[in-house]
Sequence to fold (334 residues):
Amino acid sequence: MDSLPDEPGRLANQILSPGEQAQWLSVRAVEKRRHEWLLGRCAAKEAVRLLLERRMGLHLSAAEIEIVPDPFGCPRAEGAWSKPELQPALSIAHSQGTAVALAAIGPGMSVGIDLESRSHRREHYESIAFRPDERGLLAGLPGDLREEWALRMWCAKEAAGKALGRGLSAGLGALHITRIDAGAGRIELELRDGALEQFPRLRDQVLTIYTAGESKFVFSAIIYQQGAVRMKPGRQEILDYLLQKLGELTADWDYPDPVRPESLLFTELGFESLDAVVLCTAIQEHYHTPMPFAELLAEIGQQQRDLSINELAGFVVAHLGGPPGAENVSRRVQ
Ligand SMILES: CC(C)(COP(=O)(O)OP(=O)(O)OC[C@H]1O[C@@H](n2cnc3c(N)ncnc32)[C@H](O)[C@@H]1OP(=O)(O)O)[C@@H](O)C(=O)NCCC(=O)NCCS
Fold:
């Protein structure tokens, strides 16, 4: 807001379409909110303008890009240029005189962004904002990171709510944080309760939100493509995959019985060490996730015991907590 001209009305005349100017004049809110609305429009129009220029070679002025909220308040970019196949996904956030926007284009694309000012005083919000197991994730962090990560978790919920297009309307617990990776700045979230009623197709899917911090603010952003959201597979699905894979691997081994969840890899199926390594590599590739198989194999070797397919499935479930390989879905905040 510091860089807004003294007369925001002048800026509004330059960048807003006639419809937006009417909206700007009718916004009944405190001056701070009116300015942040205008600032959000500046950021959003610039994000869409740059995106369409770089991706489509279109050269548009700010006023040609009209930001229109849908019935839920989710911003959409429209104009004479827009067509169903040229519909950028857009998200806006503002806090304490700063606005940010994120735009992306592609079939089924959704984006969400949020920022929160560190200096804005808010104490004791965790008990309402987070469920006990979410607070447990925070409690597992070193003490000096907890305040920062509480804010990032809040910010992540808002970004996810915006990407879904309904904000936090399903309730704070409905966007449920299941994992935080403080090293990578990553937060994973699943839908519960009211949010699942709104989006049943997202059951058992993990949404990854990237967060970042700089001196005054924390930020969060999510970009995902419908249909490309990576599933966190359930135990049964993993077991089915392992049985099918082992069926393939052992097809020409003259093993008399069908491979069962209780089958033991080495004594029953006749695995040799290299077969186990081949299987483990195939599993990692299938799930795009490195897992500590070397440690598992060393452990069963030391204990001189065998490994059942059931036990192997449990190991895979335990190490598929999240999708580090979800780069096809979510990208870092640029
Ligand atoms: C959408 C929401 C998360 C925004 O959070 P906020 O802290 O108030 O404000 P932010 O600065 O982060 O974001 C504001 C922007 O979100 C966007 N937004 C509003 N509703 C949205 C929706 N349903 N989907 C996506 N984006 C939305 C708007 O672009 C808005 O900016 P604008 O009004 O200047 O265009 C929040 O207002 C919300 O959840 N609304 C739903 C209603 C509700 O139940 N609120 C109670 C929550 S405790």
About this structure: The pocket of coenzyme A is lined by residues 37, 40, 72-75, 91-95, 114, 158, 161-162, 165-169 (CB under 6 Å).
